[in-house]
Write a structure and sequence with these properties.
Shape: globular
Domain Amidase: 24-444
Structural class: alpha/beta
Radius of gyration: 20 Å
Distance between the termini: 16 Å
Enzyme class: ligase
Strand order of the largest sheet: 1-3-2-4-6-5-12-13-9-7-8
GO molecular function: asparaginyl-tRNA synthase (glutamine-hydrolyzing) activity; glutaminyl-tRNA synthase (glutamine-hydrolyzing) activity; transferase activity
Number of helices: 15
Keywords: Ligase, Transferase
Number of strands: 13
EC number: 6.3.5.6, 6.3.5.7
Strand content: 5-15%
CATH class of the domain at 3-225: Alpha Beta
Largest sheet: 11 strands, mixed
Length: 463
């Protein structure tokens, strides 16, 4: 196995035992980037020089016994919304031409302190306002969408161009591209990972989290990110939790909620079949399945858009007026639409969110996790605008992709997507596991057990 193919956990062990040098690992990943990037276009910028310097520093520190932890010398990508001092944060937009970050974001600083080597900034759908990341090709089929908005991060991890990457999730932007590219994506509880220095889409919905090749890797990265930062008003003190799941697949006593409504409505038959098989596998591992009803399901879309659209427009108010032509057409239309929404609309959306959070917490008192599809369909061909369901309903591709991921953003609960197979076209399918607020350890335990016993993800060909 070549170094770039190693998971974070395996690479960390090889580095710890001196069987692999961080320099060899980073060089292998950068060679992989050079090979696949012309086709995939996952990166807004590749930072080979700084990555190699970080690897040499890690090698020297480890040689003298100063191992910082499991991320020391591990090569990673950062979504290009995340500030690193002295580097551009372009948000994949012409609006940010000439930008340079003055300080590190909290998450970049924490990863740097853990010894991570940043190999580059990964593409996002412009300002994270979309679900396809059109400039990036899917790691399994470049003619299909990468998903968004953290498309570059998902593709880089799936292709071996980063051992892990960070993304952001406002309506599904970690989980959607992770599912479409066959990797693991974790949206933590709202406030658990600080967002200082991360370009906002919608402040009351934004989350930062990891994209990895395994659930164990997600736990390792999450542990380095959590902790209160007063510079983020939403940041909370992290509970003292060991996120790394224990070995083994025994899920005896775990109550898995299976939605009887909403999550399996208008879902591709191949996606539904794969996810239901995965849920059955959880039961075989000892979990008890409990049917649950998703509360206030009819209000999800209105609440998500009622919160996100005006908040995004408020963030972009000055530049939208000063340089409107520098935005892509799709993003500009959404930002202009936000100017038409009233304060009353926004307040009603906030009230609905409050009621939805309360109802979800009551539902989650009856189960430990909820299992459902991450997206209702796999990656579509680039440029396809709509999907027509069996009942004749026509839905935009973006609305379809956000539909099943939005509830976890509205309610702030942790949500993990894991690969559970591929469709007849060979495209990955993801299952979403959602838990109680700050219940990441339980969600990761369930995902890890399935991963060990079920259909684990594989590295995309991306040759």
């Amino acid at each position: 196995m070549r170094p770039y193919e190693l998971t974070v956990a395996d690479a960390a062990e090889a580095v710890r035992t001196r069987r692999l040098s961080p320099v060899e690992l980073v060089d292998s990943v950068l060679e992989r980037v050079e090979r696949v990037e012309p086709r995939l276009r996952a990166f807004a910028a590749v930072t080979a020089g700084p990555a190699r310097r970080a690897a040499r520093k890690a090698e020297a520190e480890i040689a003298r016994g100063a191992l910082r932890g499991p991320l020391h010398g591990i090569p990673a990508g950062l979504k290009d919304l995340i500030d690193v001092a002295g580097m551009a944060t372009t948000a994949s937009s012409r609006v940010r031409a000439g930008h340079r970050a003055r300080t590190d974001s909290t998450v970049a600083a924490r990863l740097a302190a853990a010894g991570v080597a940043f190999v580059g900034k990964t593409h996002t759908h412009e300002f994270a306002y979309g679900l396809t990341t059109p400039q990036t090709g899917n790691a399994w089929d470049v003619e299909r969408v990468a998903g968004g908005s953290s498309g570059g991060s998902a593709v880089a991890v799936a292709a071996g161009a980063a051992a892990f990457a960070l993304g952001t999730d406002t309506g599904g932007s970690i989980r959607v591209p992770a599912a479409l590219n066959g990797v693991v994506g974790l949206k933590p509880t709202y406030g658990l990972v600080p967002r200082y220095g991360v370009t906002s889409l919608a402040w009351s919905l934004d989350h930062v989290g990891p994209l990895t090749r395994t659930v164990e890797d997600s736990a390792l990265v999450l542990a380095a990110l959590v902790g209160h930062d007063p510079r983020d008003p939403a940041s909370v003190a992290a509970p003292a939790v060991d996120y790394r799941p224990a070995p083994g697949t025994d899920l005896t006593g775990l109550r898995v909620g299976v939605p009887g409504n909403y999550y399996f409505d208008r879902v591709d038959p191949e996606v539904e079949a794969a996810v239901r098989r995965a849920i059955e596998r959880l039961e075989e591992l000892g979990a008890r399945l409990v049917e649950v009803e998703i509360p206030m399901a009819r209000y999800v879309q209105a609440t998500q858009w009622g919160l996100m659209v005006p908040e995004a427009t408020a963030y972009h108010e000055r530049t939208l007026r000063a340089v409107p032509d520098l935005y892509g057409a799709d993003v500009r239309v959404l930002l202009e639409a936000g100017e038409l929404m009233s304060a009353g609309d926004y307040i009603r959306a906030q009230r609905a969110r409050t009621l939805m959070r309360q109802a979800w917490r009551e539902m989650l008192d009856t189960v430990d996790v909820i299992a459902a599809p991450t997206t209702p369909l796999t990656a579509v061909k680039a440029g396809r605008p709509t999907v027509t369901w069996a009942d004749g309903e026509v839905e935009s591709v973006s609305d379809a992709y956000v539909r099943l991921s939005a509830p976890a953003d509205i309610t702030g609960v942790p949500a993990l997507t894991v690969p559970v197979g591929r469709d007849s076209a060979g495209m990955p399918i993801g299952m979403q596991l959602m838990g109680r607020p700050f219940g990441e350890a339980t969600v990761l335990r369930a995902g890890h057990a399935y991963e060990l016993a079920g259909t684990a993800g594989a590295m995309a060909p991306a040759a």
